[in-house]
Fold this sequence. Notes:
With 233 residues, the protein is of the alpha/beta class.
Amino acid sequence: MNILxxxxxxxxxxxxxxxxxxxxxxxxxxxRGGGSVKLAKxxxxxxxxxxxxxxxxxxxxxxxxxxxxxxxxxxxxxLGAIINNAAILNxxxxxxxxxxxxxxxxxxxxxxxxxMRVAKHFLPLLTEENAAFFNISSESGCITNAYPGxxxxxxxxxxxxxxxxxxxxxxxxxxxxxxxxHPGWIKTxxxxxxxxxxxxxxxxGILDLLERRVVPENHRFRFVDFTGKxxxx
Length: 233
Ligand SMILES: NC(=O)c1ccc[n+]([C@@H]2O[C@H](COP(=O)([O-])OP(=O)(O)OC[C@H]3O[C@@H](n4cnc5c(N)ncnc54)[C@H](OP(=O)(O)O)[C@@H]3O)[C@@H](O)[C@H]2O)c1
């Protein structure tokens, strides 16, 4: 399967790329500024080129996204999965009275409009069998367990869950599996060293869902954790 992953330079995105390669998939690793040293090393390990293509992909740059989709189309590439992983977490614990609306806008540009831009331009390439469209979300977007903080991030993830739900209904006739996935609280730059979870273990769970080795519980909404357990919307 050909898998496109956004934000693959580090954190969960990098682990998803590494895990997918280990399982024999081909990866298009979307990254800003040419990627990272880690990603370059991974590319070397897999012989560069075909198995792991590092592609310039800033999810705020619609023209860049469109150009990358056109390039892949021209090369005759298809996709079996799209994983919208790139995100930011800013204005932590800032209360509403002090919130800088520029932080909200910046978050929405990446966490919500990013996946929407990616869907807009890459969906036509998602033509492989048993295809998947995954949005990496967060339990902090869950309305049922809302807390007063992380306003930009949490609200962006709630909206992302809505987008997943809409895409699920749109793509169901084509048999595409659409999920919003909470990866757990994991040790990455975003999650911090205090996080209990291992990002590689989350990546393994997400790949199990993608390969349909794990089938999510029979649930009403498409919001699950990385083990396939249903989460409240
Ligand atoms: N860590 C957790 O505990 C946790 C919990 C719940 C949900 N999540 C979700 O899991 C996903 C991965 O998070 P993480 O912990 O791996 O975060 P991270 O370590 O902060 O990594 C974020 C990734 O997103 C990329 N990115 C940021 N802005 C971008 C843009 N405009 N265009 C393209 N890429 C961009 C970064 O690229 P650069 O290297 O170029 O900055 C980086 O690769 C996110 O969706 C996050 O919300 C994480």
